[in-house]
Amino acid sequence: MAQRGSPSSVTTQALVTGGAGFIGSTLVDRLLAEGWRVDVVDDLSSGSLANLGGARALPDRKFSFHRLDIASPAVIDLITHRRPDVIFHLAAQIDVRVSVARPVGDATVNILGSLNVFEGAVAAGVKKVVFAGSGGTLYGNTPDEIPTKETAAQAPESPYGVAKKAAGDYLHYYRQQRGLESTILALANVYGPRQDPHGEAGVVAIFSNRLLERERPIIYGDGSQTRDFVYVDDVADAFVRATEKGGGLLLNVGTGVETTVQQLYDVMARLTGFREPAQYAPPRTGELARSALDPSRAELHIGWKPFTSIEEGVARTLEFFKGQRATR
Ligand SMILES: NC(=O)c1ccc[n+]([C@@H]2O[C@H](COP(=O)([O-])OP(=O)(O)OC[C@H]3O[C@@H](n4cnc5c(N)ncnc54)[C@H](O)[C@@H]3O)[C@@H](O)[C@H]2O)c1
């Protein structure tokens, strides 16, 4: 069953850390649809079982859920016991502000927890780890070129960014010295259904909820700051494609296109028929002025490119949040 980017005739058993989260659960659904068997490890600190409703309803033993903190060494035993072919490592403390306030707590999950996952992978003879890195924080606030290539200097400016970089550096070590294959995906600003609209990140989710409430969303600054918005299904596709190719590489997963927050607002206001302007608040300190990731290396090495336009992705996201409100 060779589908888009699927190596499922060769590797069929996956373990997804953070699989109850926004991106992780989308990836789980994609893997299950392609016939993989999937284990999810998640402590439900920000994810939710509701995101795995479809997966948990499957009749056969294709899916199992393990509520576990990756900072606990028990995760090593679990991986050794389950022996997956591929580990998709997405579990993380994802809030940059939390990492600034509590760097030790951030590192406990994002560095030490990652090390547990990698140690488990080596012990279990896992064929590959595909890791969710962060493009926005990896290259820092002032990359020389936009869209930014993977060859740009790495200069994270938050404990979260430092921890993500460190986990990537560890993967390099594990590949060189311990024979563990890996690919690091540097994700741009991922958006889509299931993103938490109550967090600090996820402007599309936050705007969606406000607009559907018929309340004016807040733009911090004048709206000219740019982001690279990439749709979650496209990101799941990159994870699947990276299972068989791109070993040892850092690959940007973004559109390469800069969209201003004002442009995003205009598209979303139009799609929801909202005629009022946004509210404007002072810019947040430390926020990136511009961000876009050049995805050409991912196209070259794993045949990936984004396939969902921002209009289409935003429309689908709005539909999702509309549906959620209808069932509340
Ligand atoms: N959303 C983005 O735009 C974006 C951008 C760059 C990188 N990433 C990375 O992608 C990954 C997924 O992010 P997301 O946006 O889906 O966030 P999310 O919060 O929805 O998913 C993270 C998941 O990890 C779980 N988790 C957190 N700490 C854990 C722990 N100690 N043990 C086990 N599970 C734990 C959470 O419960 C959650 O289900 C993260 O690694 C994040 O850093 C996301």
Mean residue pLDDT? 94
Structural class comes to: alpha/beta
- Rg (C-alpha, Å): 19 Å
Count of DSSP helices?
A: 12
Hetero compounds: nicotinamide-adenine-dinucleotide
Task: Outline the biggest β-sheet.
Answer: 7 strands, parallel
Order of helices and strands: EHEHEHEHHEHHEEHEEEHEEHEHH
Shape: globular
Strand order across the biggest sheet?
3-2-1-4-5-6-11
**Record field, number of beta strands:** 13
Termini separation: 38 Å
Approximate strand percentage: 15-25%
Helix proportion range: 40-55%
Task: Report on this structure.
It is a single chain. This protein has 328 residues and is α/β, with parallel strands linked by helices. Helix content is 41%, strand content 16%. It contains twelve helices and 13 strands. It has helices at 22-33, 53-56, 74-82, 96-101, 103-124, 135-138, 159-178, 203-212, 232-241, 261-272, 296-302, 310-326; strands at 13-17, 37-42, 63-67, 86-89, 128-134, 182-187, 189-191, 218-220, 226-227, 229-231, 250-253, 259-260, 279-281. Strands 3-2-1-4-5-6-11 form a seven-stranded parallel beta sheet, sandwiched between helices. The chain has a two-stranded parallel sheet with strand order 7-10. A two-stranded parallel ribbon has the order 8-13. Helix 1 (22-33) links the parallel strand 1 and strand 2 (37-42). Helix 10 (261-272) crosses helix 12 (310-326). The longest helix has 22 residues, at 103-124. Residues 1-8 have low confidence and may be disordered. It binds nicotinamide-adenine-dinucleotide.
